[in-house]
């Protein structure tokens, strides 16, 4: 056990366990954001990055199972939606990370993993002439925003499977609208 200085009125040390793995950040082990000191915040960021890297590997593996670029892209989105329903990922990355890390750091980690994969998935069809859109960065951000909103809506949906299917259909139609006719 490592001691971490937590902010307090008298600046007294509180003993908090060192956190280095996603499992140690299980929902019952995550301190509330106001009790998270700098050391814990850095450890939490490492956990977020680790979880995002694991999900990125799963997305890539699922994409490799397909031959066509568009099928790979759809499989990647589907894989991300699956990952966002896993309890640890949902709690740590989706719910807690934006508040604990702050907007800039959270956005940087999102850009390094999920957005980078989506960008790579859209650059390939653009190079092959299968995607007609000038600003890939804007398209990536808009699609990521749609996926993120879907991830946030699914837990409260009365019929999550139906909502997920409809959400994927909307995203698919948007992407199809940029395919040459």
Write structural notes for this entry.
This protein is mainly α and 181 residues long. The chain has a single domain, classed as Orthogonal Bundle (Tetracycline Repressor, domain 2). It has helices spanning 38-64, 69-84, 87-101, 103-112, 114-127, 136-153, 160-176; strands spanning 3-4, 14-15. Strands 1-2 form a two-stranded antiparallel ribbon.
Give a short summary of the structure.
The protein has 7 helices and 2 strands; from the N terminus they run E-E-H-H-H-H-H-H-H.
Task: Describe the protein's topology.
Blueprint: E1 3-4, E2 14-15, H1 38-64, H2 69-84, H3 87-101, H4 103-112, H5 114-127, H6 136-153, H7 160-176
Antiparallel strand pairs: 1-2
Helix pairs in contact: 1-2, 1-3, 2-5, 3-4, 5-6, 6-7
Task: Look at the structure and give the mean pLDDT.
Answer: 82
> Can you give the helix content as a percent range?
55-70%
Number of extended strands: 2
List SSEs in N-to-C order: EEHHHHHHH
- Which parts are unreliable, with pLDDT below 50 for 5 consecutive residues or more? 1-28
Radius of gyration: 19 Å
CATH class: Mainly Alpha
Give the termini distance in whole angstroms. Answer: 61 Å
What count of helical segments does DSSP give? 7
CATH architecture: Orthogonal Bundle
Which strand order do you get reading across the main beta sheet?
1-2
Q: Which fold name fills CATH's third level, the topology?
A: Tetracycline Repressor, domain 2
Shape: globular
Q: Which structural class matches the secondary elements?
A: mainly alpha
CATH superfamily: Tetracycline Repressor, domain 2
Strand content: under 5%
Largest sheet: 2 strands, antiparallel
Number of domains: 1
